[in-house]
Amino acid sequence: MASKVAILLLALGHLEVAQSLAKPEPGECLAPTYMTRFSAKLFQVMMKLEDQDGNVSLSPFAVHAMLALIYRASEGETLSEVQRVGEFNQHPVFVALDFERLIKFKEHLQSAKLNSYSRVFYNQKLGKVNSRYDEFSKFYFDIDTKPVHMDGGEDTARWLPFWIQSSGISSHMQAGETKNFAIMHNHEVYGLADLPELDATALELPFNDSATSMLILLPNQLGGLASLEQQLAQPEFDLNRIANRLHRQSVTVSLPKFSADSDIDMTDALKMLGLRQMFTDSSKVTKLLDRPVRVDKILQSSSIFVTEQGTLYLHFLANKRSLPANSKEFVANRPFVFAIRTPNSVLVMGHINSP
Predict the structure, then answer these.
(1) In the chain, what is the straight-line distance between the N-terminal and C-terminal CA atoms, in Å?
(2) Can you give the pLDDT at residue 210?
(3) How far is Cα 274 from Cα 41, in angstroms, rounded to an integer?
(4) Is there a domain that residue 164 lies in?
(5) Is 102 contained in some domain?
(6) Which ranges constitute the DSSP H helices of 56-130?
(7) CA quadruple 160, 161, 166, 171: dihedral, nearest 10
(8) For residue 308, what pLDDT is reported?
(9) CB-based burial of residue 209 (10 Å sphere; 0-12 exposed, 13-18 middle, 19+ buried)?
(10) If both were cysteines, with which of 16, 150, 287, 327 could 113 make a disulfide (CB 3.0 to 4.6 Å apart)?
(11) How far is CA 350 from the centre of its chain?
(12) Is the dihedral of CA 234, 203, 107, 240 positive or negative?
């Protein structure tokens, strides 16, 4: 029988954009990656489970990194399930190298501050952590392992003081309700695409110093958010495929200031995706300690803040040029999906119902 271990995934995705958005440069067409495929699956399941009337943010990248770590620490059917759900088609060490490169890339962003903290908590009565696992976890994933009391009936908040028990999801709007909110305006050449299959429009806002960008998916209809999110997990609507359809053109952008804070138990969503054995006493997570352990929960807390101080630099006023006659207009005055992404992964994703 497997012993008890709790895994907490705490992803504090605090995003601050410190500089202006860059003018997009033509890029190569990118095929879907295993990271973007996993992100789409996770996002669709999470949107079924989470409050559809509020603002929601989550970090598919942080969840995926934790699964990559469990992939290395497992064997048997547990390993097979993690491999299938995580779309890991190569040796765990090569998967770990992918995540190490992405973590280092994220740490060197200049125009966005994106912090994430992941920790594994285990019952200290079970002994010490496997030193080889601990070294692997810290080196490739920057994830620490911490022993805690789990069998003494203690409140979880006592050993997870940073875990926020109450959700910070913003107040929501009723169907047909209108609301006044602060809008940021900009005019520049951006990537824009009509997506008739999704009944939506896509806009890409790149950050200055890297291939990182914010992708906004705006339903054409006021009540089109739920339908859009249901379709995003389909292979043909992978975010890389959507990005490949963007065309650089003159765009006048009106985007609200927005924020989203979410405290999420990811366990049910991962079970729905096919991760089952590791949450049972038959778990084959064998390399974390010197005995098999089971996972109790995977939790995530994430926050994103987008304001005019960092996201849209209103530099179009400086050159006083008139707008081209053929300029397109993108007005995000209804609920939309957002994704902070690289060409290989989705760092933060969610939806905004009420700025």
Answers:
(1) 48
(2) 64
(3) 11
(4) no
(5) yes
(6) 60-72, 76-86, 92-107
(7) -120
(8) 56
(9) middle
(10) 16
(11) 7
(12) positive
Judged against a pLDDT cut of 50, whether residue 178 lies above it is answered with: no
Residue 168 lies in a domain: no
Q: What is the pLDDT of residues 117-165, one digit of tens each?
A: 788 888 888 888 899 999 999 999 988 888 877 665 555 555 454 443 3
Q: Is 222 helix (H, G, I), strand (E, B) or coil?
A: coil
> What CATH number does residue 314 fall under?
3.30.497.10
- Domain containing 234 equals 3-153+182-352
Please tell me the total count of domains within the chain.
1
CB 116 within 8 A of CB 65: no
Higher pLDDT, 108 or 21: 108
- The position carrying tokens 């594994």 is 120
pLDDT recorded at residue 22:
39
Q: Strand 144-148 relative to strand 112-115: parallel, antiparallel, unpaired?
A: unpaired
Helix/strand/coil percentages in the chain, nearest 5:
30, 30, 40
Task: Using alpha carbons, select from 43, 83, 65, 50 the residue that is nearest to residue 119.
Answer: 65
- For the stretch 211-250, pLDDT in tens is 788 899 999 999 899 899 888 877 778 888 898 899 999 9
CA distance 82 to 108: 29
